[in-house]
């Protein structure tokens, strides 16, 4: 049993989202004023994985993540299950397979996808919600391996993005091609979803020549020792899910590079940012921290 | 050459949001690989550095160090972890720590009051074996804490700013 998340509303309710045995999930709602609890075992004929729990703007809890008809180790699409806050029953179930474009960019044919094949190693979910109640989930492929000489290798690859509306319904989904390779497992920079000036943005690091790359075979690797090519990008979305990739920061000073995972937003114009030394200084990555002002042109 | 020009052209025409070249360094004892942002409000951020003990620091949005204090804790075992899921309550920073002793995990809540240069903490070591990983959440002006136990119970505590337990709930799942 694993506690995945704890969330609260402004009406004395506390909710806990739990993973019970890798494929079964439970949501518990506790009213602190009435000292009453309700429990719902989230059920589906599909296998669920990388599950998150949150609250919709109308106060209904929602469970979302990845699903597969076969095994939770292979993601086949995005899902959401909305829970009625009063009756504590599942009211609205949304299960959508990945688009053909997402399958194709992960080298899975339409025929294989139709048979239920999924994408492996999709995890590391992060989320953000906008003022209207829409919420966005971002996943990345992350896995590690040991090289033939026994060294650790971490891989952060394609990024998956899904938008849910204020009712928890899937609006659109997208994928970004990427391949970063690290020798130090603790040092991966991952990505950061943010709402800035009302826009949904994903900040991430990748190869500078991967700007707007659309084909997996053209997606270039960035190796840890090859930081000269590393750039921090911003992937910006409009309401319809149309993406625009931009260079967020180019590195004039090649001594340090950004680590978006530890960025924090003060407001739409100010970000707390972390940089890390490149390469490691005496085997250690040294962090530098600062505040950057964002300006809209 | 043409490709590079094209890429450069795309970069220029897509750059609507840019970062001004104004870097405000967060000045203080932050030259470490272990600094973790644990909470922020609209105008302040709290960082923890685990170098030379646990150093709590607060900075304003101009990058100025407004408060620093070394924190020490008793009763959390040999290893102590800090997580980045803290929050501000009435200008005080609440964050979670987790100690471990052999296979036993001990959750804890810390509250730092920079205005009065003080801090307080509570542990939940009640001899129950607790799963690694627990959660905290802001609950109005209070703190909600939840964790699961090896005997399959979910436990929820509600604490006030003084870390007094106001409400406690447990249920076997």
Tell me about this structure:
The complex is a heterodimer of chains A (297) and B (173). Chain A is mostly beta strands and 297 residues long. Chain A has one domain (2-253). Chain A contains 2 helices and 23 strands. Chain A has helices spanning 100-105, 110-114; strands at 2-8, 13-19, 25-31, 36-42, 47-55, 61-68, 74-75, 77-83, 90-97, 119-120, 122-129, 135-146, 152-164, 170-176, 180-182, 191-196, 199-207, 230-237, 243-249, 256-258, 264-267, 270-277, 287-296. In chain A, a hairpin with a 5-residue loop joins strand 18 and strand 19. The longest helix of chain A has 6 residues, at 100-105. The model of chain A has no long low-confidence stretch (mean pLDDT 89). With 173 residues, chain B is mainly beta. Chain B has a single domain, classed as Lipocalin, CATH 2.40.128. Chain B is 8% helix and 54% strand. Chain B has one helix spanning 2-14, and strands at 17-25, 36-40, 44-49, 54-60, 65-71, 79-82, 87-89, 92-101, 104-113, 118-123, 135-139, 142-148, 153-159, 165-172. In chain B, strands 6, 7, 8, 9 and 10 form a 5-stranded antiparallel beta sheet that branches. Chain B is globular. The model of chain B is unreliable at 1-16 (pLDDT under 50). The interface between A and B is large, with 58 and 56 residues. Strand 23 (287-296) of chain A pairs antiparallel with strand 1 (17-25) of chain B, so a sheet runs across the interface.
Secondary structure tally, helices of chain A: 2
Count of structural domains of chain B: 1
Order of helices and strands of chain B: HEEEEEEEEEEEEEE
Q: Which shape of chain B, going by the Cα principal axes?
A: globular
Extended strand count of chain A: 23
Q: Roughly what is the average pLDDT of chain B, rounded to an integer? A: 83
**Rg over C-alpha atoms of chain B, rounded to the nearest angstrom:** 21 Å
Q: Which protein chains are joined by the largest interface, and how many residues does each one contribute? A: A-B, 58 and 56 residues
Low-confidence stretches of chain A: none
Provide mean pLDDT of chain A, rounded. Answer: 89
List unreliable stretches of 5+ residues of chain B.
1-16
Return the string of H and E elements of chain A.
Answer: EEEEEEEEEHHEEEEEEEEEEEEEE
CATH architecture of chain B: Beta Barrel
State the total count of DSSP E strands of chain B: 14
Q: What's the main sheet of chain B like? A: 5 strands, antiparallel
- What is the terminal separation of chain A in angstroms? 49 Å
Task: Compute the number of helices of chain B.
Answer: 1
């Amino acid at each position: 049993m694993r506690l995945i998340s704890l969330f609260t509303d402004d009406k004395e309710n506390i909710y806990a989202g739990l993973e019970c045995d890798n494929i079964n999930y439970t949501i518990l709602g506790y009213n602190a004023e009435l000292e009453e609890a309700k429990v719902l075992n989230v059920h589906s004929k599909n296998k669920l994985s990388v599950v998150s729990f949150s609250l919709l703007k109308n106060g209904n809890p929602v469970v979302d993540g990845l699903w597969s008809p076969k095994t939770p180790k292979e993601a086949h699409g995005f899902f959401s299950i909305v829970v009625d806050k009063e009756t504590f029953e599942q009211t609205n179930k949304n299960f959508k397979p990945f688009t053909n474009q997402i399958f194709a960019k992960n080298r899975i044919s339409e025929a294989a996808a139709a048979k239920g094949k999924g994408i492996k190693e999709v995890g590391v979910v992060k989320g953000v919600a906008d003022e209207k109640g829409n919420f966005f989930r971002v996943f990345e492929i992350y896995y590690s391996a040991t090289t033939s000489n026994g060294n650790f290798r971490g891989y952060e690859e394609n990024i998956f993005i899904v938008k849910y509306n204020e009712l928890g319904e899937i609006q659109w989904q997208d994928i970004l091609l990427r391949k970063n390779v690290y020798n130090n497992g603790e040092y991966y920079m991952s990505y950061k979803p943010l709402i800035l000036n009302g826009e949904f943005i994903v900040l991430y690091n990748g190869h500078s020549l991967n700007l707007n790359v659309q084909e997996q075979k053209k997606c270039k690797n960035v190796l840890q020792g090859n930081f000269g090519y590393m750039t921090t990008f911003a992937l910006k979305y409009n309401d319809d899910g149309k993406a625009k990739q931009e260079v967020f920061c180019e590195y004039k000073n090649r001594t340090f590079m950004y680590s978006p995972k530890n960025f924090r937003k003060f407001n739409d114009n100010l970000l707390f940012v972390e940089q890390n030394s490149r390469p490691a200084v005496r085997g250690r990555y040294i962090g530098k921290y600062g505040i950057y002002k964002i300006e809209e042109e | 050459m043409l490709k590079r020009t094209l890429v450069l052209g795309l970069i220029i025409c897509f750059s609507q949001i840019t970062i001004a070249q104004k870097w405000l360094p967060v000045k203080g004892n932050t030259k470490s690989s272990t600094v973790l942002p644990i909470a922020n409000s609209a105008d302040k951020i709290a960082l923890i550095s685990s170098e030379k003990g646990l150093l709590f620091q607060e900075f304003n949005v101009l990058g100025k160090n407004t408060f620093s204090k070394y924190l020490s804790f008793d009763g959390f075992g040999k290893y102590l972890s800090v997580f980045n899921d803290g929050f501000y309550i009435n200008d005080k920073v609440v964050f979670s720590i987790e100690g471990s002793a052999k296979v036993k995990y001990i959750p804890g809540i810390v509250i730092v009051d920079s205005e009065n240069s003080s801090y307080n903490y509570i542990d939940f070591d009640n001899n129950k074996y607790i799963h690694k990983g627990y959660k905290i959440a802001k609950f109005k002006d209070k703190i909600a804490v939840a964790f699961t136990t090896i005997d399959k119970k979910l436990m929820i505590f509600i604490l006030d700013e003084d870390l007094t337990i106001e409400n406690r709930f447990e249920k076997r799942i």
